[in-house]
Write a structure and sequence with these properties.
By secondary structure, the chain is α+β, with helices and mostly antiparallel strands. The protein is about 35% helix and about 25% strand. The strands form two sheets. Strands 8-10-7-11-9-12-13 form a seven-stranded mixed β-sheet, sandwiched between helices. Strands 1-2-3-6-4-5 form a six-stranded mixed β-sheet, with helices on one face. The structure holds adenosine-5'-diphosphate and magnesium ion.
């Protein structure tokens, strides 16, 4: 069937590169396939590198996000990939394509948002590239980070029996997007503010990633950018395992539940397949679950919630309303046809 890139899909395309890119030279600790690449920076130092692009009309609508928020989000989603390796972000590079109809206020607004995020997470903007584009804005950030050898948490380290945990609520971002796409009057100002902020100005969980990495609590980790189902299946796939996910246990906010109820949808779907929550999803050996929960509570005021288990059998199963079913890998694939 001649369907362009749809049947190959985003991960099929990445696979074509990964297959032939080779294992890398001796300083490459981790190449294609994780939230960041990991390079040996000498001694115990590890250099983390990640890059993510936001494209107008694919990732954002010009009248659905302010320039300030776009600047903030462009950096924060990249910092989230550093957090997902247990790293500390250090530096950022901004490469972008701007269309001729934009004005200076767009640029200064974007700059202010980006630099606010940079200050919050102690990241320096050290370079980039600025070009003109014919029709759509594209924004590409590259972020560097650091960690010590032994602190880096990959997607591939999970073991059978590990408890799958989330470090915060999921679904708020999907709920926020739904508010942007089909504006509902039926929402309180406080709920609207919370859900829109989750979608437009997501806060990466850097402190949580550092806690899990420096205390050696997690065996594998990813940030939830594509939805819990797909991101957990990445951990399972890279670890050579399967996973049981309890959708009934997903931590959801009251704001998302209220919006779902009034919209007649299931809030769990925003967490399972909505994506862009940028919460950390991680695996913990059963004998470290209690320590993890208490460290998160005491040191960060966070509730780490168990939502599943890693299994030997290479299958993803999900429990909803008490019944288990096997699920195909889901989430957002950039080249899949949208209904
Ligand atoms: P994330 O959601 O954490 O940003 P992705 O799912 O986008 O991760 O990417 C998965 C892996 O594929 C990452 O290691 C990323 O660096 C790599 N990757 C994506 N696109 C390409 C490409 N065109 N060439 C090489 N590697 C790529
Ligand atoms: Mg990621």
């Amino acid at each position: 069937v001649a369907d362009g890139l749809q049947s190959l899909g985003e991960f099929g395309i990445i696979g074509l590169f990964r297959k032939d890119a080779g294992p890398g030279r001796r300083w490459v600790v981790q190449g294609i396939g994780d939230d960041c690449a990991v390079l040996d920076a000498g001694g115990k130092e590890r250099l983390l590198v990640t890059t993510d692009m936001l494209a107008e009309r694919v990732h954002f609508l010009r009248d659905g996000i302010t320039p300030f928020q776009l600047g903030y989000k462009s950096l924060s989603v990249n910092i989230s990939d550093i957090a997902a390796m247990g790293g500390e972000p250090t530096a950022a590079f901004l490469a972008w394509g701007l269309t001729g109809d934009l004005d200076e206020a767009f640029v200064t607004g974007f700059r202010d948002g980006l630099l606010k995020c940079a200050r919050e997470f102690h990241v320096d903007l050290l370079g980039g590239d600025t070009v003109s584009c014919k029709s759509d804005i594209v924004v590409c950030l590259t972020v560097l980070g650091r960690a010590e050898e032994g602190e880096v948490i990959t997607r591939s380290g999970a073991r059978p029996g590990d408890v799958v945990m989330l470090g915060g609520v999921v679904g708020d971002s999907g709920a926020g997007l739904s508010l942007i796409l089909h504006d509902t009057e039926n929402v309180s100002a406080a709920d609207r503010k919370r859900l829109l902020a989750a979608h437009l100005e997501p806060r990466p969980q850097v402190e949580l990633g550092r806690l899990l990495s420096t205390r050696h609590l997690a065996t594998a980790m990813i940030d939830v950018s594509d939805g819990v189902l797909q991101d957990l299946s990445h951990i399972a796939g890279e670890s050579g395992l399967g996973a049981d996910l309890d959708a009934d246990a997903l931590p959801l906010s009251d704001a998302a539940r209220r919006l779902a109820k009034s919209a007649g949808v299931d809030a769990r779907d925003w967490g399972l397949t909505g994506g862009e929550d940028y919460m950390l999803l991680f695996c913990v050996p059963p004998d470290k679950e209690a320590e993890t929960v208490s460290a998160c509570r005491v040191e960060l005021g966070l509730d780490a919630v168990p939502v599943g288990t890693m299994t030997k059998e290479k299958k993803m199963r999900v429990r909803r309303g008490g019944t288990w079913s096997e699920v195909p890998i889901q989430g957002y694939d950039h080249f899949k046809k949208t209904e």
